[in-house]
Amino acid sequence: MNGELKTLRLAAMDLWDRYGFSSGDPFDFDDRGPGYDDEPSAEWVQMHETMDRKMRIDVLETLIRSHLLPAIAAADGGSPRIDRLETPHNPIRDARYDPFFHAGLEPPKWNGIFVDVSPEAIMAAVGEVRIRYERTVP
């Protein structure tokens, strides 16, 4: 491989994990996980450097809504409601998740539910988020 962005795996149980989705930033190649080869491509580095954490989280949320939630619905018969938390960890979680009372709740039976998101779908989500940001900038 030449270091280009590979398929990104989104696991349903990450919606229930404070460290899920690489602590909410699977696109941070400084702390990269299994979504990358040894070195990211020059195009990915340039794109990444123009996005702050909030934008990357918006891209992640877009991918979760468009890819992961439908997969959960198909496998589980329902779709969770997700909340966005202010936290340095994973900010996108199942709305039932409460960091203070989480230990008393039984997690959903989502083990084995995941989707692989293509680089093309990731870049489409990046484009969608960029358009939203451009519309909000005066």
Task: Describe this structure in a few short sentences.
The chain has 138 residues and is of the alpha+beta class. Helices cover 40% and strands 10% of the residues. Helix 3 packs across helix 4 (119-136).
Polypeptide structure, described:
This protein has 138 residues and is of the alpha+beta class. The protein has one domain. It is 40% helix and 10% strand. The strands form two sheets. It has a two-stranded antiparallel sheet. It has a two-stranded antiparallel sheet with strand order 2-3. Helix 3 packs across helix 4. It starts with 7 loop residues before the first strand and ends with a helix.
Q: Order of strands side by side in the largest beta sheet?
A: 1-4
Beta strand count: 4
Number of domains: 1
> What radius of gyration results from the CA coordinates?
15 Å
Mean pLDDT: 79
Task: State the low-pLDDT regions, or none.
Answer: 31-36
What is the overall silhouette?
Answer: globular
What fraction, in percent, of the residue positions are helical? 25-40%
Percent strand: 5-15%
Q: How would you classify the helix and strand content by structural class? A: alpha+beta
Please report the number of helical segments: 4
Give the CA-CA distance, first to last residue.
41 Å
Features:
two-stranded antiparallel sheet; alpha+beta; 138 residues
Give the SSE layout.
Layout (H helix, E strand, L loop, with lengths): L7 E4 L8 H5 L17 H8 L3 H24 L5 E3 L7 E3 L19 E4 L1 H18 L2
Helix pairs in contact: 3-4
